[in-house]
Structures are given as C-alpha cells and as structure tokens.
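TEACHING EXERCISE
Course module: macromolecular assemblies
Task: Read the component lines below, then compare them to the predicted structure of the full complex.
Student: A.B.
Group: 4
Components provided:
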Amino acid sequence: MTTPVHGVVMGGTGGIWQVRTDAGELHDVSLRGRLKHEAHGSLKLAVGDRVSLGRIAESDTWAIDEIHPRRSKLARRAPAGARGERVIVANLDQVLVVFAAARPEPHPRMLDRFLVIAEANGLAARIVINKIELAEASVVRARFDEFVKAGYPLHLVSAVTGEGLDALRAEVQNKDSALTGPSGVGKSSLMNRLFPGLDLRTAEISDSVNKGRHTTVGAVLHPLPGGGFVADTPGLREVGLWGIEARDIAHCFPEFRALVNACRFADCTHTVEPDCAIKAAIDRGEIGRGRYESYVKLREELATRS
Ligand SMILES: Nc1nc2c(ncn2[C@@H]2O[C@H](COP(=O)(O)OP(=O)(O)O)[C@@H](O)[C@H]2O)c(=O)[nH]1
Ligand SMILES: [Mg+2]
Ligand SMILES: [Zn+2]
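Instructor-supplied answer key:
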C-alpha cells in the first residue's frame, strides 16, 4: 500500500476534481467508488475540502480515498425537492465582500445581504471598498460607518493607486478567504495587485470570453504564494438567503445580537413591540437606520416565503 498524499480540492465539475497536493502538485482525480456511494448520504465533496489521495493500482492515476472533516463552510440549502445542502466552499476563515466607492455606485443594502449570508454560515466578514481614488475617503467612511459600528473591519483601497493594499494583504495572506461582491467592482484586479502572479482574469480580458459562464455558483480556488487561498464565488448573491429562517435573521446582524435578550418580550420581532432594545439602540445612534431597514425587509422576505 502506498502512503496517502494530502491535498485541497481546487475546483471540479462532472465528477472530475482538481486537487492540489500539499507539495503543490495538481492532479485530476475522481472519487473512489466507496465514497461516491457515501456521498448520497450527508457529505458531498466540495471545493476547499481537504482530502487524502491514493494511487489507483499500479497506475499513474490518483483517486480521493478520504474527505477530511470540515472546520467551516459556505453553504446553502439544496433546491426544493433535493435533500441536504450544497457546500459552495469548505474550510474558510473569512468572507471578503468587495464593493467600489464609485463605478459602480455602492449599495449598502446589497452589502447587508452579503454579510447576512456570511453570518448565517458563522463566517467572519471583511468589507473592502475599492476604487477609493474615485471618491472622497471621508464621505465613503461616513457612508459605511454603520458597518464599522456593527463590528466589521473596513478597508478603503485602490487597485490602481495601491492605497490600503498592504493592510489588506496582511489580512488575506495565509488565510482561506471567499471573495465576493458585485461584478465590475475590481475583485480580480485587486487580487492580481495584492498577489502578483495570481493572474485572475479582469473585465478587460474576460468580458466576451466569460459570457454565460457565470451562471453556476461553482467556486474556484486560487492558491496564494506563501499559503492560503482565495475562492472566487461568482454566484453568491444568487444563492440568496436560502435556508435562513425569519426568526434567525436578527442573529445575522452582529450589532443586534448582544441586545436581543434585553427586549421586553422574549419573542420580540423588533418591529411593532414596545420596549424593544434594538429600536432604543437605533434612537441612541448605536445601530444604523439603514441596517435596521435591511433587517425588516429581509425578515419580511423570509416570513412570506412558503
Ligand atoms: N478606477 C479604478 N478602476 C479599477 C480599480 N480596480 C479595478 N478597476 C477597473 O474596474 C473594472 C472591473 O475590474 P475587475 O477586476 O474585472 O472587477 P470584478 O468583476 O469585480 O472582478 C476594470 O475595468 C478595472 O480596470 C480601481 O481601484 N480604480
Ligand atoms: Mg472578476
Ligand atoms: Zn426587540
């Protein structure tokens, strides 16, 4: 018997998975038959999974013998009719949500949705505002102050001027991050500038090539020099809030969490009840009104869903 080789699933479709071994070698592999069978139960292989590979008898081909337990995951519930959940990326340290200071104009209420998805998966999130050279930093800071109050780290950066990139790089290297945000905000440009050699395709090159290819939620991992990876998760917004219950949504707003037990009613929805600790915190200026509006909207959305 050969010694197993360990690695990470970088991508894959149609039963063939790309695994990068800890020594940095890439292998196209399939799941060993026994695991395929088990996959119908609970654990389905996902990008980001750590696996053990074994050689297929005497050949130069490798197969996945074992899927290691996950320390975290970005997942959504399976579509109606199907069972279980779909893991988009396994083993993440954080989610990087990227918006632009301008071109395209940032929508804080859309940012709330990305943050709720991260929170619902128990993942730390970091907000990155790119193209900062196109706006007044103080104006951008004021606009995103409600997120800083909520406890989110905020990076104002520019892939063009290099501003803020050293501080951001320090928080991304040697960690496993999911990269998300609207298209055109400069996610690929940023990663290329942070980690020369990464070579992600940017809008200039890929617009025509990529047409119609981003319809899946499939993620691809990019290994970082020195360790860690960044996972491109193009379809995260389409994933939406599947699997989140209306009554759990307050817990997806970190600035609400410490207060929810201080409301008069234990089952306070923070909308119409008297003596609501959340509404009192808004009046004191400790919770942003925009954040609260998102809470009410998302809660309604989830409550009216069948
Ligand atoms: N002005 C400015 N433009 C940028 C910056 N970063 C990226 N861009 C441009 O924004 C467009 C979209 O960039 P891209 O990296 O493909 O965005 P993605 O869709 O989020 O990956 C491209 O035309 C980039 O040249 C920046 O910091 N400042
Ligand atoms: Mg891109
Ligand atoms: Zn309340």
